[in-house]
Specification:
21 helices; 4-stranded antiparallel beta sheet
Length: about 575
């Protein structure tokens, strides 16, 4: 627990003056609270002594003034400390988002998206309560005990000792239920993560669920996950339903003992009625700290359980990140690439995706990679922007190891278009400008023209300002791919990577795209993975991959003349295109 709480240190230190001001206000507020029983004692003593109504009224006026001051400082302490907790929540959530954006593919293979969403929302909220209400209640409980007990001891220390009778039982009770709460709450958060993951998966794949008529089955799965989450929360409720009656019993026993011993002292004349009333009032002030101690432990256990889950993300290693090996003087990419005996095996797989890849790509060269599904084309392309790093061998960019380039410079020089064609839930314009916010309208039109999508954008209800829905659901697959292609071209990249980027586009449109691209690609390094011939025809070189190895390499014409594997693949593709045109 202590190790997890230390991770909050830098956040709390940044707002130490806020906490200092809030705790100072809390100290004054508790001090004023402790004065109230003394004023009650003074008023009762004056009444029993038969003093004038003016004297009693003066004490009552002081009592009202103290209550007003207490309210002012109580408002201020909550405003400052809970406000600091909100700022820490903001920074913690921001840091989590930064960590998630920097994480590797392996991390996302080990963690479900819905569970990560639960951590960044619900777990951060629990930590915010810990550093806000938790800190406030912990210090208030401790200060109230110290100050009120000091006041009580000054009046009668023997009677004050009664308050300490249940302390051992309170300590054992709080410790026992604290451990139970930590375990139960951590399990509840896991159940919430499972439920959130299931909901996220079903919503993102709702078309598939409907197409397979599995809505009922998925509803049952979600109902079961929801039921597990509710049952776990019932367990939490049960824990605290047993805790509070036990604490009430202990507090009640103190009141009974105080009433008995204090009453005897009043009867034998060793304690005034005013002092007795003061003790009972002060004991009332201690009731919340004694019961509130359980609440503080509850917040502490919930917060630390959530903090453990957050630290998994915050402290997860970043296998691909800038570090001491990074050369910050490297600030401009030309585009020369050299793969030296590169190999890569995906996480959780015993079969390498790439084996002994050695390849040089010069600036201005267009290289097309072809091969069967699973031959390693996408894996090879992902090495260039360092989405992944090779397990063996080296990738050089402009003569320097790719790991020496600052990630912002490297990735800022790459335009990457994946086959999936991901679009954000915003307008066409905002999707195009992602990563290139300063582009002018004429640049948008030019990029969209090369991607053969401009005319279709103009036919949309609001043109460039048309909302495309989540993941571009209102557009066809081919339209999504071409918008993504235009987005990459807008960046004016030194290295352009197209991973089956027009697989959903018809052959005629694809041919037009590559015809326009051939002019754009001059003086740029271009890597293309494709299952079609149009890309190969504009390429300077075609590389054939099979089971992660380069089996053929050369120009389109040379490989056809060699009558090898590429020639067979071309004949197969030509036959498929002829059959497609015939249909």
């Amino acid at each position: 627990m202590i190790r997890d709480l230390r991770s909050l240190g830098p956040y709390v230190i940044r707002y130490r003056w806020r906490y200092a001001a809030g705790l100072a206000s809390l100290f004054i507020k508790v001090g004023l609270t402790a004065v109230i029983p003394l004023l009650v004692k003074a008023a009762v003593d004056k009444l029993t002594a038969g003093e004038s109504i003016e004297d009693v009224a003066f004490v009552v006026g002081m009592l009202i003034g103290v209550a007003l001051l207490k309210g002012i400082f109580q408002y201020w302490m909550r405003l400052v400390i809970v406000g600091a907790a909100r700022l820490i929540e903001f920074e913690l959530r921001r840091d989590l988002a930064d960590c998630l954006l920097a994480q590797s593919q392996r991390f996302y293979a080990e963690h479900r998206t819905g569970d990560l969403m639960s951590r960044i929302s619900n777990d951060v909220a629990s930590v915010r309560v810990l550093v806000g209400q938790g800190v406030l209640n912990a210090f208030e409980t401790a200060l109230t005990f110290i100050i009120v007990l000091s006041v009580m001891s000054a009046v009668d220390w023997r009677l004050t000792c009664i308050v300490f009778i249940p302390v051992p039982l309170v300590t054992m009770t709080v410790s026992y239920y604290g451990r139970k709460t930590h375990e139960a709450y951590q399990q509840a958060q896991r159940r919430l993560g499972e439920m959130t993951s299931l909901a996220q998966e079903n919503l993102s794949s709702v078309r598939v669920v409907r197409a397979y008529a599995l809505a009922g089955a998925e509803q049952d799965r979600f109902a079961e996950a929801n039921s597990r989450y509710v049952r776990q929360n019932y367990r939490l409720i049960g824990i605290w339903s047993r805790f509070y009656p036990q604490m009430d019993l202990l507090v009640g026993s103190v009141f009974a003992a105080m009433l008995g011993f204090g009453g005897l002292q009043v009867l034998n004349g060793s304690l005034s009625i005013g002092a007795f009333v003061m003790f009972m009032s002060a004991l009332g002030l201690l009731t919340w700290p004694m019961v509130g101690l359980g609440w503080v432990v509850n917040l502490l256990e919930r917060g630390t359980a959530s903090l453990e889950r957050l630290n998994v993300v915050l402290h997860a290693p970043l296998p691909i990140a800038d570090g001491e090996h990074t050369d910050q003087n490297l600030d401009a990419v030309r585009g020369d690439l050299e793969f030296r005996d590169v190999g890569y095996t995906p996480f959780g797989s015993a079969r390498p995706s790439l084996r002994d890849i050695s390849l040089d790509v010069s600036v201005g060269e267009t290289v097309v990679f072809v091969g069967a599904v699973g031959s390693g084309k996408t894996t090879l392309l992902n090495l260039v922007p360092r989405v992944i790093d090779p397990d063996k061998g080296t990738l050089l960019l402009d003569g320097e190891e790719s790991s020496r380039w600052p990630l912002s410079v490297l990735r800022g020089s790459v335009g990457y278009v994946a086959q999936s064609g991901y679009l954000f839930s915003c307008t066409v314009r905002e999707n195009l400008l992602f990563g290139c916010e300063q582009a002018e309208d004429w640049e948008l039109e030019e990029a969209c023209g090369i991607a053969q999508i401009w005319d279709e954008i103009q036919d949309l209800p609001d043109g460039l300002d048309t909302l495309v829905g989540e993941r571009g659901v209102t557009l066809s697959g081919g339209q999504r791919q071409r918008v993504c292609l235009a987005r990459a071209l807008l960046r004016d990249p030194r290295i352009l990577i197209l991973d089956d980027a027009v697989a959903s586009v018809d052959a005629v449109t694809e041919a037009r795209i590559f015809e326009r691209l051939s002019l754009f690609l001059r003086n740029r390094t271009t890597l293309i993975a494709s299952h079609r011939l149009s890309a190969a025809r504009i390429a300077d070189r075609v590389v054939v991959l099979d089971e992660g190895r380069i089996v053929e390499s050369g120009s389109h014409a040379d490989l056809l003349a060699a009558q090898g594997r590429y020639a067979g693949l071309v004949r197969k593709l030509e036959l498929e295109e002829e059959l497609s045109r015939g249909e």
